Amino acid sequence: MAVYTDIAEDDLKWFLTEYDAGTLLSYKGIAEGVENSNFLLHTSKAPLILTLYEKRVEKSDLPFFLGLMQHLSARGLSCPLPLPRRDGALLGSLSGRPAALISFLEGMWLRKPEAKHCREVGKALAEMHVAGEDFELKRPNALSLDGWRGLWEKSEARADEVEPGLQGEIRNELDFLAAAWPKSLPSGVIHADLFPDNVFFLGDQLSGLIDFYFACNDLLAYDVSICLNAWCFEKDGAYNITKGMAMLEGYQSVRPLSETEIAALPVLARGSALRFFLTRLYDWLTTPEGAMVTKKDPLEYLRKLRFHRQIGSAAEYGLSL
Ligand SMILES: Nc1ncnc2c1ncn2[C@@H]1O[C@H](COP(=O)(O)OP(=O)(O)O)[C@@H](O)[C@H]1O
Ligand SMILES: N[C@@H](CCOP(=O)(O)O)C(=O)O
Description:
Shape: globular
Largest sheet: 5 strands, antiparallel
Oligomer: single chain
Strand content: 5-15%
Strand order of the largest sheet: 1-2-3-5-4
Bound molecules: adenosine-5'-diphosphate, the ligand N[C@@H](CCOP(=O)(O)O)C(=O)O
CATH class of the largest domain: Alpha Beta
């Protein structure tokens, strides 16, 4: 679950007086999520999401995340919209944490996405990339090459507890990626965590994207590779080329990939598999037993990484070259 910080009803009522959000009818913690504490609020005006930003989110990054949601929403992308306080600020404070109220998005995330949903996700990702083109704030990706090495160094000594031989394998992978990482592909604002739990659907129709708290400036095709990893593998670890094809077609119906982006996909997919392996590994090794958060399996991403290593060309992801 992800409610790291409790809130007192009176504090919440006081917090709401700073907004034109109506009076509080009810509130409850939301079990899902990993990074922040989220609450669903019902007020006399509307359902709302209250997010308390926890330790792993840099306060100085919050204007980027909240401003990006405003920017994308203004350009027609369906995503939560932060509510301004009466003084115009998007950020307040509650229970000693930076806090924001954001609009409630209707829909549910899909436990068993199909190819048709992957197509919608690909299209929405490209729409986000296009809508983000004129967003003025910048945020470098803290979880790119340099960040991976730092993260690895925190887990390296205990990595072989998770699987024998990991130490050597990941060191070699980092060296490979440092040498092979593309330097001049199109870049822009990326979501960087567009997993199934961050995409809502109403029936088969995509109703919106949430959780922009890893968004940053990086290679657009890297974001595509994150989605291939998150959406196009089956539970048994097999890559589903039909889903990959649908996702890439959906993406390219809005923003065609260049030849160099296509050629770079296998390396980018190795990088994005490693990125989620490393954050999961760190959490796996450091989250105390009994903590109220569901730990995600790092080995799922190790298997994906190994799959991408043996890819000969992007055609194997379902792209018609
Ligand atoms: N704007 C929103 N509308 C509806 N539900 C939301 C919204 N934002 C978050 N949620 C709910 O809260 C959960 C956790 O949100 P998320 O942003 O993924 O948290 P975290 O950043 O901690 O991973 C989501 O799975 C969803 O159920
Ligand atoms: N998507 C990441 C974990 C981040 O969780 P989220 O709830 O913020 O999407 C993973 O699967 O490792």
